[in-house]
Structure formats: C-alpha cells, structure tokens
# Entry
Amino acid sequence: MLILGGTPIGNLSDASARLIEVLSDIEIIASEDTRTTQKLLTALGIANRPRLIALHDHNETAVAGDIAQLATEQDVLLLSDAGMPTVSDPGYGAVQAAIAAGVQVTSIPGPSAVITALAIAGLPTDRFTFEGFLPRKQGERRTLFGALAHEPRTMVFFESPNRISESLADARDVLGADRRAAVCRELTKKFEEVRRGTLAELTEWAGAGVKGEIVLVVGGASASTVTLESGLVEVGKLVASGMRLKDACAQVSENTNLSKRDLYQGALAGNLN
# Structure
C-alpha cells in the first residue's frame, strides 16, 4: 500500500507513535527532500535506514508511476518535509497513480499547519477554505483577493515572511481595512506567535518585518458585505465557465446564504455582470 505520513511542522514531539513505528520498519520512503527525512530519522532515534526516493514538485510526474508500481509489491511511505503530504506539498500525483494501479492508499494522520492555524486564529471554524500559497506577483494577488471578496467562509493562506507585509496591504486594500484576520507564525515552535486584529492593524504591525513560517487566516465576508448584486456577479462567472444557470445559482446560494430563487430570477432579468 501507499501510506501518507504526517510529520511534525515544528515540534519534534508531535511525531505520532504510529509514525515512529512505521519509520522503524518501512523499507521504502518517497520524500520531498531525502536529506530532511534522514534528519528526521536521526532526530527520532530511529536506526532503520530505508531506501529513500526523492519525490518533489520537479520530478513527481516522472516518478509517480514508479512509486505506484513499488507500492503494488510492498508498502511505501510518502512524506513531505512537514505536515501532511499532498496539502500544498508533493504527493497528489503519486496518490493518483497508486489509485489507478489499484493500490490501497491510507494515511498516518499528523500535524497540519492549516488546521493548527485555523484552530487558534480566533475566527469562525465551522466553514473554511484553504487557498494555498498566495501569488508572488501583486497583480495576481489582488486579483485573487478580489475573487474572494465575498467569500463568507474563513480563508487560510500560506505566505512567505518576505512578502507577508505586502500581502496584508493588498488584502487590506481589496477586502477592507476592518476585515478580521490573524497571522500565525512558527506554529508549534519555541517562538510561536499569533497576531490577531484587523487587516489595517496587521499591515501596520508587519511593516517592521516578520520572520518565520507563516499562515495567514482571514475572516469571511459578513452578511452585509454579500449583496444580491455581488452574488449575481459570482453566478455570472460560473455561467461563463460553462456551468448551468440553475447549478450556478445553487452553488452561490450555498456559499453566501443568498436566496437561490432571488439569484435565479435576477439572472433571468438580465442582471448578470
């Protein structure tokens, strides 16, 4: 089988007993960085030295099939550098190849920066969306924030410490200065910090510079922000992408709590933008 293993995102003590047990016996590990895996084995005091296969963004297409083939014959453990594989990390291609080959895919649940940040940010957790890494270019970043301006769910992003100040300023300008957010840095590590406040307050704070690995959590749009007009804009985008009007209205209704009937009638009246 192919086993996805969750590894510590900072604190080594978060390695589960099950992960340690599998690491002690497994013969093949596919990992994002084999050097990081070797360090993990050493740090955990594991004497086992399995065969290590590099699986990263640049070679996953080429080696995913080979890993799936190996998994038809014996267990293969798949690791990313930190957290759960496939979540903004390599592994998706290997999982797809394994499934296609009829290989059982399972996981050893472990730490996740997404869930950890969401849990401690102090923002609603009943519904959320994970958007991965923010675009490097400002124009693309602002376009993304614009597309999410009326998203009612809490949003989680990854960002570099070198760009967090600029990204917060873009979020402030596009989503509004009063939108609540939290910057979570160095999660589970010695200098873990969570800064909570409005986007305006966080932008000012980040101006002095921020270090460490960062997860940005942004509150969703309030009910007053989501209008029928903005909902019809989203319906129009979905219809333009090829979705049926009724389905588009249903999806926007589910995401915004706007009336599906009002959206449909507004669309029929020609109010799509």
Summary: The first strand starts at residue 2 and ends at 5. The two ends are 49 Å apart (CA to CA). The mean pLDDT is 94.
